[in-house]
Amino acid sequence: MVLVAGLTTTFTETLARVVIVGLVAGSVVLAPAIVFAYAARSAERQDRERGL
Fold first, then answer.
1. Cα separation, 40 vs 8, whole angstroms
2. Which of 3, 5, 6, 46 could pair with 11 in a Cys bridge, judged by C-beta atoms 3.0 to 4.6 Å apart?
3. Spatial distance between the Cα atoms of 19 and 40, rounded to a whole number of angstroms
4. Are 32 and 19 in contact (CB under 8 A)?
5. Which comes out higher in pLDDT, residue 28 or 51?
6. Where are the domains of the chain?
7. Distance CA 23, CA 17 (A)
8. From CA 39, how far away is CA 17, in angstroms rounded?
9. Cα dihedral: 10, 11, 14, 20 (round 10)
10. Separation CA 19–CA 28 (nearest Å)
């Protein structure tokens, strides 16, 4: 939403920083979540293969 607001109005340096910080923060949160989900699916698959 901030990016859209910046594109439709005057795109200030502060607004650009907010967009960049949001993208970085989202990446920092999303990357470990993807790895954790993959690990959990792999563990469940191994449990099924072992009959647990």
1. 42
2. 6
3. 31
4. no
5. 28
6. 2-50
7. 10
8. 34
9. 160
10. 14
CA distance 24 to 1: 16
Query: What pLDDT is attached to residue 40?
Result: 95
Give alpha helix (H) positions in 1-52: 2-8, 13-50
Tell me which residue has tokens 């990446």.
Answer: 27
Residue 21 token pair: 């910080």
pLDDT 10s digits, 1-47? 777 877 788 778 888 898 899 999 999 999 999 999 999 999 999 99
pLDDT score, position 46? 94
- 22: CB partners within 8 A, 6+ apart: 2
